[in-house]
Amino acid sequence: SYHFFLLWLIFSYYSFPLDTTSEFSVRLYHQLQVAGGQDNIIFSPLSVAVALGMVELGARGASLAEIRQTLGFNHLLPGVEFSLLQNLTAAVSNDDAHCVIRFANSLFLQEGIAFNPEFLHLMRKYFRAQVETVDFSQSAAVAEQINSWVENQTESKIRELLSAEDFSSVTRLTLVNAIYFRGSWKNQFRPENTRTFSFSKDDGSEVQTLMMYQQGDFYYGEFSDGSQEAGGVYQVLEMPYEGEDMSMMIVLPRQEVPLASLEPIIKAPLLEEWANNVKRQKVEVYLPRFKVEQKIDLKSSLQGLGIKNIFTSDADLSAMTDGKDLYIEKAVQKAYLEVTEEGAEGAVGSGMIALTRTLVLYPQVMADHPFFFIIRNRRTASILFMGRVMTPEVIEPNDHDFDSI
Ligand SMILES: *[C@@H]1O[C@H](CO)[C@@H](O)[C@H](O)[C@H]1NC(C)=O
Ligand SMILES: *[C@@H]1O[C@H](CO)[C@@H](O)[C@H](O)[C@H]1NC(C)=O
């Protein structure tokens, strides 16, 4: 009935908090883009936000103010952001046959320094976070301990996050941040439709890649920024994962337009515009298999965005411990993403797919050149991953069991 529907609406509204950190996410992307040359990019904005929330919980004064300002929490009453982050991670976390999303956040503190009990209590309450003490002077042992913790939290996808050289006898505190995601496409690609295919990189060179293919119902739209700055019309394709909560959005410029022309126009409101304007329809999709992995020095990126104080000797982390000289020396994130047909191994078909543009019945998204992508939660608008593929999975000409077209 109508009343039931209304109740359901209200219930949905309250149960899915809206992520407000997309501005921060996009600014961080632009930082990485400027530093990234022609490389692939992958990072997890949500995971960085959660890690910074953990630090903010222990911060005061300028240390706290910079985090709130940069993450876009200033419009919230003080402290509400912790509840928001808690609700967001709860809404996004998942662990079933189709979809696994797991956060691994932890603070490692030098032995002999005690955390304030109230801080520990709030860390558990809001972040279910682990806080552990280690002896940083035993740098190799600490690196191993932290790495195996991360490895365990990420089904072994993230290895060697830190090395002994990352620590010194003056290290007091290390923030560790990792995230694991595994999802099945709602519409899976059939492995027998995968072919070797040329991918044109933005530097003009070509590599051979494994191109997946399917025709299916997706969310699709064509956009233009009007000014021609982005090279005119570009395509946005949203492909849901099983369960439809999570999806991958692929943003593809025209073939002759380098991704670097499109990147500057990417802004937080534009992400919303894409999400709100893609329409469900049949689309022909050519998407390369890809695997992207990146270790990011969050310290320099965050400093570039205005979070500076926590990394200096002026840091005020007095809500964390009573120690006066505590600051964050190191903050790294390592992210990994592998996109495949859906786990199915190397079965190969025999050239039945017509790769021709002459008889196009549906919009065709041909990702045979660099593209931007986002993996997001469609209910909370949280961005789990953001990145770009400049080079997909490259195959050597002589290791093909795959027929060239
Ligand atoms: C988080 O969820 C709880 C329980 O549903 C709710 O009381 C609280 O207001 C939410 N916080 C935010 C910031 O949305
Ligand atoms: C690995 O993680 C699981 C579940 O998160 C936990 O039960 C187990 O104790 C962990 N093992 C190690 C070696 O940390």
From TrEMBL:
Keywords: Glycoprotein, Protease inhibitor, Secreted, Serine protease inhibitor, Signal. Residues 26-392 form the Serpin domain. Its main location: secreted. Pfam families: Serpin. One of its GO terms (molecular function) is serine-type endopeptidase inhibitor activity. InterPro entries: Serpin_CS, Serpin_dom, Serpin_fam, Serpin_sf, Serpin_sf_1, Serpin_sf_2. The keyword Chloroplast does not apply. It is found in: Secreted. The keyword Metal-binding does not apply. Residues 1-17 form the signal peptide. GO terms for cellular component: extracellular space. It comes from the Eukaryota. Belongs to the serpin family. This is Serpin domain-containing protein. It comes from Echeneis naucrates (Live sharksucker). The lineage of its organism: Eukaryota, Metazoa, Chordata, Craniata, Vertebrata. The gene is serpini1.
